[in-house]
Amino acid sequence: MTDFTKFDNFLKDWDLYKENKELWKEMICRTTKSENEEWLITRFANGEDFFDGNPLYSALIKKKNKGIRIIQLENIVENPIFASWTSTVELEDSVIEELTIALILNEYTYRDAEKLIQQFLNNYKSFKKYLDQLEDTYTPINNARQNETEKISAYKIRTEALAIQNLAYRTKIEALELLNSNLLFLKDSESKNQTSMQQSKPVSIKLTASKKHSSIKKRIKLA
Amino acid sequence: MSFGHRGRFQAQGKNLEESEGWAQDNPLTIIDGRKKLNDLKNKIPPNELLAREVAFIDCRKFIDKSNQSGGINIGNIGKVFRKSFPNNFIERVDLEVHKGIAFVD
What is the Cα–Cα distance from A35 to A55, expressed in whole angstroms? Predict the structure, then answer.
């Protein structure tokens, strides 16, 4: 039996990523009883892989004009645990019906994905019913995770708001302290000025040019 | 007439299906790609936009990353490009490149 927990870090380890991709390839091969080509691009033009699990694996089942896309998500509360939908894709020479499954991998989601893929390929009537059934099962869990995400976001926003408020408060205190020290300095200078005005005599400045030197000398004499 | 470069941005959901596509002779530039994504944002109602806020941000980040990595090139390998950007995957933004090159300078 596969230990799915070993793929928890699939987005951090390239070898694990490839092994995880093989897991899906084998499962779809087993279901279709044939080799299927990957039909979606997972590389940029420079050859670098997206390495983000979106999609982790895709398969085109040509004889049925059907495609499968597996988006595997990191196990964090922001991500839904299981979601699936169908859409049509127009290619140059054919129209493909595509089943997309986005999931956080564990033994239950893997089992549900496998059953859904089997029905999508082999029994379309029961597939639609099963798709709805899975939506009913997983939507409350996904919504709970979404609410949790919103709570986390709200908490983060509140924490940041408090930090900003705190910073504003400290800035205000610092500004008040600065203002206060300026006022004290002004008051001090003012009182010193008043004292010196009362004590000192009028000051006159006399500028004279010396004939002995070529440059002009400024001589200030206090009378 | 068959254009050499085709694709679309699409906002999908329970009550929404809106898209902004391209079909042209020249590769889609990153500037035009960003513009088309913004045009899609402007097409959808505010509540639907709110539900896809993260999806639009992620899509924008992805096309910027593509640009830094040489773009998306479908070439003649018979594959297509499809990517979905979720909030919860029911309300989502899809990006598809069916043919040619996209998100280059």
Answer: 19
- Residues in chain A, total: 223
Q: Residue B88 — pLDDT band, cuts 50, 70, 90?
A: low
Least Cα separation, residue B39 to chain A (angstroms): 23
Cβ contacts from A onto B, under 8 A: 64
Provide the β-strand partners of residue A63: none
**3-state DSSP helix/strand/coil % of chain A, to nearest 5:** 55, 15, 30
Chain A closest CA to B104's CA: distance in Å? 10
Per the model's pLDDT, the better-predicted residue between A168 and B27 turns out to be B27
| A109 in Cβ contact with A103 (< 8 Å) | yes
Higher pLDDT, A174 or A159: A174
Q: Is residue A44 a contact partner of residue B102, using CB atoms and an 8 Å limit?
A: no
Q: Residue B89: its pLDDT value, please?
A: 67
Interface pTM, i.e. ipTM = 0.93
Q: Which two tokens stand for residue A35?
A: 């080799």
Q: Which residue has the tokens 């254009």?
A: B3
Q: Are the C-beta atoms of residues B71 and A46 closer than 8 Å to each other?
A: no
Q: Does A128 or A208 have the greater pLDDT score?
A: A128
CA–CA dist A40, A60 (Å, integer): 9
Per-residue pLDDT of A23-36, as tens digits, reads 999 999 999 988 89
CB B102 within 8 A of CB A118: no
Q: Where are the domains of chain A?
A: 4-157
Q: Which of A36, A39, A43, A44 is the best mutation test for B, with the most CBs of B within 10 A?
A: A44
Other residues' Cβ atoms within 10 Å of the Cβ of residue A103? 24
